[in-house]
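Feature request disguised as a bug: please show the residue count (654) next to Small ribosomal subunit protein mS39 in the output. Example input:
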Amino acid sequence: MHRLGIIIPRRGAATASATKKIVIQPKIKRGPTELLEALAATVGPDPTAPHFAFIDDPATIPSQAATKRNYLLAKELGRRAARGLAEEWPTLFAFDREVPRLDVFRPQKTLDPALMEPTESKLDELIEARRVEDAAMLFEKMRGDNVEVSAKAQRKLFLLLTYYGGKNPPTFENIEWHALRVFGVDQPEWKADLIELLYETLEKDAEIKSAMICGFSKYKAGDAKALSIFKEMQAAKEVPHIEAYNSLIASLKPNQSGELLKSMADNKLQPNVDTFNSLLVALKKSFHAEAGPIKKIKEFSRVLGEMKQLKIQPTLHTYAIILSAFYSPPPMERDTKTPDTGKSADKAAGITALAEFLQVLEKAAKVELHGIHDHTFFTIAMKICQDCGNVDMANRVLSLYTDARNEVKMPAFTYENSFYESYLLLNIETAVSLDELEKVYKKFVPNYVGISRWLVYRMLNKLRDQDHWNLSRRLIEDSINAQHLEVASIAGRLRGLLIGLDFTALSPFQREEFTMLVRKMVDVWIEYSRFKDERKKRKLTFSTVIESALLLTRIGDDAKALDLLQLLFDESATTGEEASVDTAGFVHDRRLVELFDHALRQKNVEMATVVLELMSRFFSKAQLQYQASRLSERCGLNKDQTRIIEGFIRLRPQ
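Example output, currently without the count:
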């Protein structure tokens, strides 16, 4: 009974626990998005998110900007092809019965305007959908069938055609297909036939004439025609729309801007921020190459003063136009004949202007988006910081861009890649500590910045004078992933970087990493040399073989090093259509001496004699005799072996 009392609780205890009340807390009233907002505030935005679009298979994650472009476009074009198949043959999916039904998997084929009923309602649908070319085709069909089109519909069609130049909307306006929006390039084109027909047909009021002026200016279809229409409106006492003035100011000669501004004042037309942006563009074009920063600052300050007086807030595009006047690309990106007069003064003026703009933006409650060119402010600002070597200012620009208050974002993989690349290159040039540089490099590569050859060269220059295994290993691995080992200049410098490292100073774990990395690099070069495709094939050069063998001896793989050296004497590897080794070339004497010294230390006579024969291509007889005496002494050669080596040296041509 005592034992059962332990296992079975007493009746009184069970009753007490049963009578305990459970209090249910009242429901907390929350909005439909409060939980999502709380999660967003906790997690925060992930600026590397675009890079994760590539992570389907680790083997296919791209490391270069061009590869990212091709990968993203391939994925998107594959989806477009699948949608095209579903649109063309919908009966193939007729027996699918998914619940709930997903319309995204049942795309409807866009009806050809040639098969549409020629009615004004159909025309309105095409105009609302911004199917510019289809709307133009249907309108032509309606004209051919003598279907009457109201003046209102013709006006809407005319405004659509002038805005897009008679072509479909450009790819950067594409909402659904992100890759085409980012990487698509559309040449501006003006299809004048139907536009001019509608212009002659419609009643030419201020709106129609202003739209025509904007179209001519936007697509560079005829500045003289745009100015002629403007003068007609002036003669008829008509007031052009503000957009017409803005287009003319930006497209005409700078000395004509004053007349246009005076006309706006006479018509009591209030300028907007686009007016002043157009004026700044005109001012920038008016500056000659010899124009100094003082003149530029004076003109720009006058415009900014007018904006302040009219209580018009400058946009990021306003600041970008001003900064671009003080920035000139480095010599590699422009004509080297361009004079550099006043470049230092422009640098100082540019960084000063940037500091003032940042002071304003950092105090703003929100950095709002006003136009498609606003994001150029960040790229130009970072270029100026890089040009001036100002890391503190670059950190302020980066902080502003990543701030939650900033609503202006650059297109990923294009402008954003350039922005972060400039920031990284600036840190490479100015970094004092390689530990700090390692943090910056690992943060931005490859998620933000692709592994370009230019970046690898910059990093190699930085690592040339200081040993830093972790950063060197990461750079080499990134170069392998980006397929830069096929570039002879990069491959040679990477081998030199590893040869220059103090192997004895590495920890046991780092030595293991060193060993694996060397074997991987050598395997890559051997694989390149065996490609059947001549375009991809990269033969093993003399320097590649010697330096690779030297690295293999560092990790204790003398057998593979010897096999690699003997390829230089293998006729099947050096001659014929399938040759994988090119014996021509040059290697520094010290590499051969290091390899020879290693063979002597290991008393490896076979390797030493092979290296001695390779030395005979570059060394004098006196140098060879000295090395031969070392070989005989260290390895204890007998008289016959010594006589053979001496005979080889004696018969060698001087």
